[in-house]
UniProtKB/TrEMBL annotation:
Residues 22-143 form the YbaK/aminoacyl-tRNA synthetase-associated domain. It comes from the Bacteria. InterPro entries: YbaK/aa-tRNA-synt-asso_dom_sf, YbaK/aa-tRNA-synth-assoc-dom. Pfam families: tRNA_edit. This is Ala-tRNA(Pro) deacylase. GO terms for molecular function: aminoacyl-tRNA deacylase activity. SUPFAM superfamilies: YbaK/ProRS associated domain.
Length: 155
């Protein structure tokens, strides 16, 4: 079942999307494989702290975050990965680690790796570990209003 905040947003905005059920998977790569989605099209959400504030970093599952590059893109902000204990309570309607990449629903900015913007569709966690959402990238961008940056490199 979609995270309630995400479901409400999609309903309110009349967003086109599809729910993809899949066997339980915990990592973005495993989720992409379980949902039969190319890792380049599955958007994983990595939680970071930029100058001490939680933020979402969204990139293709096949990539790894480049925190140095992100720091430069954010004007020299101190950037580090956030620990699960630092963000688990920020997503009360989601399973830990399955938050959808819509930071404004949770009071935080979203930074998206620009490689995703070139895809016709993307998929991402639905708020749990056994469903994904697929939607046109343009629709995701309209709803999430992320800041587009070059943030990652191939694993």
């Amino acid at each position: 079942m979609l995270a309630p905040r995400l479901h409400a947003l999609f309903d309110q905005e009349h967003a086109p999307y599809a729910i993809l059920g899949h066997p339980r998977a915990l990592t973005a790569h495993d989720t992409a494989m379980a949902a039969r989605i190319a890792p380049e099209l599955f958007a994983k959400t990595v939680m970071i702290k930029a100058d001490g504030r939680l933020a979402m970093l969204v990139m293709p599952a096949a990539y790894r975050a480049d925190l140095r590059r992100l720091s430069l893109a954010l004007g020299g902000a101190a950037v580090e990965l956030a620990g699960e204990n630092e963000f688990r309570d920020a997503f009360p309607d989601c399973e830990v680690g399955a938050m959808p990449p819509f930071g404004h629903l949770y009071g935080m900015p979203v930074y998206v790796d620009s490689r995703l913007a070139h895809q016709p569709q993307i998929a991402f966690n639905a708020g749990n570990h056994d469903e994904a959402v697929r939607m046109p990238y343009a629709e995701f961008e309209r709803l999430a209003q992320p800041e587009l940056l070059w943030l990652a490199h191939m694993m």
